[in-house]
Specification:
201 residues; 19% helix; 13 strands
Length: 201
């Protein structure tokens, strides 16, 4: 599927769950903005929400087109590492949910699409880029800042996120820099902003 302009972002963001818990899967009808969900087992899902004005396509034709693109991509890995899980065509937009094997597959696929809005660096790389950043502890009610050197460790997963994106994890968010913490599983990064999410392995 060729990359289209992202659907204009509404001020209100739909969060998949109103409580501090995670669903098993993202459903296309439940999201209104691009959403990345890193599951507890290391696999993940991404919901791409994009403009779609080609009215000559019906949903089955669109599914077939995306499936063909994914078959071509999967051949590079010699395995079925990414697949279409759900899709919804509504008005002038399409939401496609893809399930991927791990963070590397997602990062590579996103780069192939022309996006580079999320990366998963090791601690040393993140420290180089965010050495002066002050992090907040997700579970703490006290507004205490921690230095990057106290937080960025390969004992945790690290995601550098460029908005707009809703980031979710089946693990727990431990620390964050920038962005908006919704709860210890849900995080939002606004348009044009960069955030770092440190979450448990």
């Amino acid at each position: 599927m060729k990359k289209k302009s992202l659907l204009a972002i509404a001020a209100a963001v739909i969060i998949l769950s109103s409580c501090d818990s995670m669903p098993k899967e993202i459903k296309a009808g439940d999201v209104s903005v691009e959403t990345l969900y890193m599951r507890a087992d290391g696999s993940g899902q991404v919901a791409y929400v994009e403009d779609f004005t080609e009215k000559y396509f019906n949903i089955e034709e669109l599914k077939g087109y995306i499936a063909a693109e994914l078959i071509s991509y999967n051949k590079q890995y010699g395995d079925k590492v990414i697949e279409l899980s759900d899709i919804e065509l509504k008005n002038s937009g399409v939401t496609a949910v893809l399930t991927f094997k791990d963070e590397k597959v997602y990062a590579d696929f996103n780069k192939a699409r022309g996006d580079n809005n999320v990366k998963f660096p090791k601690a040393a790389e993140a420290l180089t880029e965010f050495a002066d950043a002050l992090f907040k502890e997700a579970d703490s009610k006290e507004d205490i800042n921690k230095k990057a050197s106290e937080v960025l460790s390969d004992d945790y997963n690290i995601a550098v996120v460029n908005g707009f994106l809703n980031f979710q994890t089946g693990k727990k968010i431990k620390y964050y820099y920038g962005g908006t913490l919704i709860d210890t599983h849900h995080f939002r990064v606004d348009e044009g902003k960069t955030a770092v999410v440190v979450y448990s392995k």
